[in-house]
Design goal:
single chain; 274 residues; alpha+beta; D-amino Acid Aminotransferase, Chain A, domain 1; globular; disordered C terminus
């Protein structure tokens, strides 16, 4: 299966970067320390011109590389966001990607100021579309449709933001013998009443499917909740309350601690939003 997945990248590599060798190989680089924070830059390319949509912070479960939540607006400094956009612009230009959305995953080490690219996906990160809609008023899925029809994504009507911050909360179990049950009808109804803006996704697994999760990832992702809030303190309180209603442990950090131990920057938006 892995050969089928890699083959399209190998065709691009042979055509655009033949000096790099086959994509059916691994490029070994200097390891990135576990504590170094991870981010996502989303955007699109129209007629070869790269546009940024926004940046989402990845927050890990402590001591792991398992995603605990995705938050936007980002705490990453605007100048580092601009550097990530420049990396995307140069890479996408080099491979001839001229039309479509993209998602660039990268690390930034605040101690060394080093930016390390993980991967660049030639698609919209669908999990983040709702987060941008809440905080920016933009609808990335509608923008993607417009782009596919040859229209300008920036011409898609923008709504009013409904939240100062939004998060995609990822619920995981790290113990196969301690997987929380899925919420029943009463819990789901209570969640819907108290959080009419919330989105709930349940992902129950059992038997071999559950065993496979723990074998390959060491954990089981059993649910996702999307919430918006006024600020980080409000978001943390809402996340804890929503988790309690569902009967799940809350994927939260101390709000006094930045998700990736980097300083918050409230002037992030002008550097990337159209």
């Amino acid at each position: 299966m892995i050969r089928h997945l890699v083959e399209p990248f190998d065709r691009v590599c042979r055509h655009r970067l033949p000096e790099a060798g086959s994509a059916h190989r691994m490029l070994l680089e200097e390891p990135v320390p576990l504590h170094v924070p991870q981010y996502n830059l989303d955007g699109w390319v129209a007629d070869g011109e790269v546009h940024a949509l926004g940046v989402v912070d990845a927050v890990m479960y402590p001591g792991t590389r398992a995603f605990m939540r995705w938050d936007t607006p980002s705490r990453l400094a605007p100048e580092v966001q601009s550097r990530a956009l420049d990396v995307a612009r140069r890479f996408l230009g080099a491979i001839g990607y001229r039309h479509g959305f993209f998602n660039l995953e990268f690390f930034h080490d605040p101690a060394t100021d080093r930016l390390s690219v993980i991967e660049c996906n030639p698609r919209l990160a669908s999990q983040f579309g709702d987060l941008y809609r809440r905080t920016l008023g933009t609808d990335p899925h509608a923008m993607a449709v417009a782009l596919a029809l040859g229209e300008d994504p920036l011409a898609v009507p923008r709504g009013s933001p409904t939240a100062g911050i939004a998060s995609s909360l990822v619920y995981r179990s790290f113990d196969p013998l301690d997987v929380p049950p899925m919420p029943g009808l009463a819990r789901c109804q209570a969640f819907a009443r108290e959080f009419p803006d919330g989105l709930l996704f349940t992902m129950p697994k059992s038997g071999h499917a559950l065993e496979r999760d723990f074998k390959w990832t060491g954990n089981h992702r059993f649910g996702i909740v999307h919430l918006g809030a006024r600020d980080r303190v409000d978001l943390d309180a809402r996340a804890r309350r929503a988790s309690a209603l569902l009967g799940w442990p809350a994927p939260c950090l101390d709000t006094s601690t930045a998700p990736n131990t980097v300083e918050r920057h409230d002037d992030w938006a002008p550097s990337l939003t159209p």
